[in-house]
Amino acid sequence: MHLFFTESSFEYIHPIFKNKIKTKSAIPFFVNNNGELVDLVNNYLLVKCEQEWKDKSNTIKTNTQHIQSFLNYIENNLLSIESVSFDVIESYLENLKDNKFKENTIKNKILSVKSFYYWLATYNFIKIDPFQNFSNNFINKKINSFSKNNQNKIFQINNIKNKIIKDLKTEDIPTPEEIKTLYKNLNNEYKLLFLCYISTGMRKNEVLQL
């Protein structure tokens, strides 16, 4: 997906209200790998730049780049803007994590795409907004489930076994120190299991089986 900016002001017909408007600044627009204008996203950028992002060059640049990142992702996966579903959004989020983007960057990228699809759905360019059941808490949950300080944390089960198992036949009640060691070695994904362990009084071998 190729990004360009208009060189000067021009007149256009508003995609929603159909009135003629003259732009006040350079406007970003996309051309796909077939050399075709990407009308849906270009209409969005045109309206946003003229009505909400005007005189905010950093906002225009940042949001446009975030959208470009998503467009490249769906184009590489042979998807169209209209065919994007919740599963695609979730897959894209996972892709951002895999590529080691910082937490705030991931949030901003997702929110930029969310704003784009909200606009498309509001003005009936698409029938269903893939973000309609999507919340900011979902983004946080996804990020925190697999990373800490923006780095993947490996769950070292053997280390934990070595620390909490002395002799399962005779030592089946963990000490406070063993509980602290277990908690220290868990990532966020396994904290729910830890809470289950504490609240139900599971034996150590039962936890290890889970």
Structural overview:
The strands form three sheets. A two-stranded antiparallel sheet has the order 1-4. It has a two-stranded antiparallel ribbon with strand order 2-3. A two-stranded antiparallel sheet has the order 5-6. Helix 2 packs across helix 4 (103-122) and helix 4 packs antiparallel against helix 5 (136-146). The protein is built from nine helices and six strands; from the N terminus they run ββββαααααββαααα. The radius of gyration is 24 Å and the shape is elongated. The protein has helices spanning 39-51, 57-76, 86-98, 103-122, 136-146, 157-164, 176-185, 191-200, 204-209, and strands spanning 2-5, 11-13, 20-22, 28-31, 147-148, 151-152.
* Major beta-sheet overview: 2 strands, antiparallel
Order of helices and strands: EEEEHHHHHEEHHHH
Question: Which regions contain 5 or more consecutive residues with pLDDT less than 50?
Answer: 146-155, 165-170
Overall strand count: 6
Strand order of the largest sheet: 1-4
The class by helix and strand makeup works out as mainly alpha
Radius of gyration: 24 Å
Essential attributes:
210 residues, mainly alpha, two-stranded antiparallel sheet, 9 helices, 53% helix, elongated
Topology, pairings included?
Blueprint: E1 2-5, E2 11-13, E3 20-22, E4 28-31, H1 39-51, H2 57-76, H3 86-98, H4 103-122, H5 136-146, E5 147-148, E6 151-152, H6 157-164, H7 176-185, H8 191-200, H9 204-209
Antiparallel strand pairs: 1-4, 2-3, 5-6
Helix pairs in contact: 2-4, 4-5, 6-7
